[in-house]
């Protein structure tokens, strides 16, 4: 090794040591802790840190905490609060962040990545799975006609996932070893993740699962229409809600299909999780779907949730 290269390496190591010492001093002086972790960046530019031992922790940024130039998989030094809120993912305030080295998704604990994705977290990747060459929707590239019906191709404990038509046989994954399979089969075998579909711009629809025992509903009439909620008066025959004159029903729930336009006087059916706040007026935030009804109480159109 030349003297010049030796000096460069020496000063890099010296700089890293200096950063660690400064972080340690700051942590001790302000009753904080420091840790070395990998970063998970989301598509909304929020961040989580993760280690094999700790699992993912959502970050609240304060002080000198700057994540510019830091992407999913990068190794960082963090100064943060001693206490981590015990949730999944955990929650913690970070005061200082220093990037130590570049990383990729393959440097992250894969079990935690899968858990976050199944909970609906949209993770931002600057790279793709290192065994995948491409994922292609052949119906777009080859003008293949498919039946117009939703096709379920994947599910987890929280969501069902659909293609907008019967086309799973045409969504093809090509691996770097030259082998191919359908995305549906690759997902079932754990060879790819939903984030890989996102990376290759494969469109799909995500719908929350509704468990039978958690589903409640009532019919009513729309009294007011707001930007993110409608005020509904339950029908008189709704025994469980007969004491409620009007209820605010949230409309900002997830759906890939646009909500219909609601008007004052519309008859609707609200599907929700059974929880109503004790505010004035009462509010339903755990909405699964809202349906427009005809004069006979029959459903006119479904309104699954927006993405």
How do you describe this structure in short?
The chain is an alpha+beta fold. Helices cover 17% and strands 34% of the residues.
Question: What series of H and E elements makes up the topology?
Answer: HEEEEEHEHEEEEHHEEEEEEEE
Number of strands: 18
CATH class of the largest domain: Mainly Beta
Q: Could you say what the CATH architecture of the largest domain is?
A: Beta Barrel
Overall body shape: flat
**Helix fraction?**
10-25%
Order of adjacent strands in the largest pleated sheet:
16-14-13-12-15-17-18
Low-confidence stretches: 302-307
Q: Count the DSSP helices.
A: 5
Q: How many domains, in number, for the residues?
A: 3
Helix-and-strand structural type: alpha+beta
Give your account of this protein's structure.
The chain has 307 residues and is an alpha+beta fold. The protein has helices at residues 3-29, 110-118, 138-141, 183-188, 194-199; strands at 33-41, 47-50, 57-64, 75-80, 90-101, 132-137, 151-155, 159-163, 171-175, 180-182, 205-208, 216-225, 229-234, 247-250, 267-272, 283-284, 287-293, 299-301. It has a 7-stranded mixed β-sheet with strand order 16-14-13-12-15-17-18, with no helix packed on it. The protein has a 5-stranded mixed barrel with strand order 1-2-3-5-4. A hairpin with a 6-residue loop joins strand 2 and strand 3 (57-64).
Topology:
Blueprint: H1 3-29, E1 33-41, E2 47-50, E3 57-64, E4 75-80, E5 90-101, H2 110-118, E6 132-137, H3 138-141, E7 151-155, E8 159-163, E9 171-175, E10 180-182, H4 183-188, H5 194-199, E11 205-208, E12 216-225, E13 229-234, E14 247-250, E15 267-272, E16 283-284, E17 287-293, E18 299-301
Parallel strand pairs: 3-5, 14-16
Antiparallel strand pairs: 1-2, 1-4, 2-3, 4-5, 6-9, 7-8, 8-11, 9-10, 12-13, 12-15, 13-14, 15-17, 17-18
């Amino acid at each position: 090794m030349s003297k010049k290269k030796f000096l460069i390496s020496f000063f890099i190591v010296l700089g890293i040591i200096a950063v660690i010492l400064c972080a340690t001093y700051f942590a001790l002086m302000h009753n904080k802790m420091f840790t070395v972790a990998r970063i998970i960046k989301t598509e909304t530019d929020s961040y989580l840190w993760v280690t094999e031992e700790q699992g993912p922790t959502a970050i609240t940024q304060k002080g000198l905490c700057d994540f510019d130039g830091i992407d999913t998989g990068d190794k960082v030094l963090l100064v943060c609060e001693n206490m981590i809120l015990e949730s999944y993912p955990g929650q913690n305030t970070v005061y200082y962040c220093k990037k130590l080295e570049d990383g990729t998704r393959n440097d992250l604990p894969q079990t935690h990545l899968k858990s976050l994705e199944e909970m609906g977290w949209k993770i931002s990747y600057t790279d793709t799975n290192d065994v995948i060459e491409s994922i292609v929707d052949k119906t777009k590239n080859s003008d293949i006609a498919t039946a117009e019906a939703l096709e379920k191709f994947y599910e987890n404990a929280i969501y069902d996932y659909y293609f907008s038509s019967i086309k799973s046989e045409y969504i093809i994954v090509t691996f770097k070893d030259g082998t191919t399979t359908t995305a549906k089969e690759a997902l079932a075998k754990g060879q790819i993740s939903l984030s890989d579909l996102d990376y290759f711009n494969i469109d799909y629809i995500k719908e929350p699962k509704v468990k039978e025992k958690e589903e409640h509903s009532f019919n009513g009439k729309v009294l007011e229409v707001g930007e993110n909620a409608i005020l509904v008066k339950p029908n008189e025959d709704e025994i469980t809600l007969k004491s409620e004159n009007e209820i605010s029903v949230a409309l900002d729930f997830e759906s890939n299909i646009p909500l219909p336009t609601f008007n004052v006087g519309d008859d609707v059916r609200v599907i929700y999780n059974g929880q109503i706040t004790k505010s004035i007026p009462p509010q339903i935030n755990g909405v699964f779907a809202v349906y427009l009804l005809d004069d006979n109480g029959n459903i006119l159109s479904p309104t699954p949730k927006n993405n």
